[in-house]
Every structure is written in structure tokens, then in C-alpha cells.
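pinging the channel bc i need a second pair of eyes. not urgent but kinda urgent?? the chain im working w is below, pasted from the shared doc
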Amino acid sequence: MSTVDDREAEAKDDMTAEAEDELGDLVRPVAVEARGKYRIWLKYSDGAEGEVDLSDCAGKGVFKVWDEPGVFESVHLDEYNAVQWTDDLDMCPVALYMDLTGKTWEEVYPDAPA
């Protein structure tokens, strides 16, 4: 007999598997750490790694939460590999990858429809 928690876990696993199928061979973050004031270090599945400066976002709109003690330092990867701080605040890993590498959308996704 399965419990509600078991069914929720199975549904989440199914959603994660579907998301991975859709992403195929796309580059994904594999590690993230907070570094200094509003900087994060990222490592991606293709080996790209380095720091991204997010200070231009700090103190604005939803990013004001970073000013609360410990919030910025709580950065982690969620179950879908988004770079996340809280349940309500995450950043697109592809946009961060492009910022880190200097690559364009077309370079990251050469087979994507125009």
C-alpha cells in the first residue's frame, strides 16, 4: 500500500525524468557555492566553471531577500538543476551559463529553432 508521500515522491521523480528527457544533452549545473558579496561559483556538466557576479541584481525586487542574513549563502541546486535560494527565488541555469562563458544562445543551443 503506497502512502501519499510515496505517490508525491513518484510524481516528482516522473517530472524530473520528463524534464531530463526534454533537456537531452543540454549543459546543466552540477555544483554551486556562494562566494563573496553577491558572487556565486558554478560548475557545469561540460566542465565550464567559474564565478558569476550577481551584484547588479542585489537589493532590487525579489532579490532584496539576499540582504537577509544567510539567504544569499544558502544557494543550492534544486531538483531541476535551477540555481535556487528560496522556494520563491531561483535563476535560470542557462542564463547563468551564458554569463559565465560569454556564449550566445545560438552557441549554447545550435539546434534550437530560430
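so The chain has one domain: 4-105. and Residues 16 and 63 are 26 Å apart (CA to CA). — does that match what u expected or am i reading it wrong
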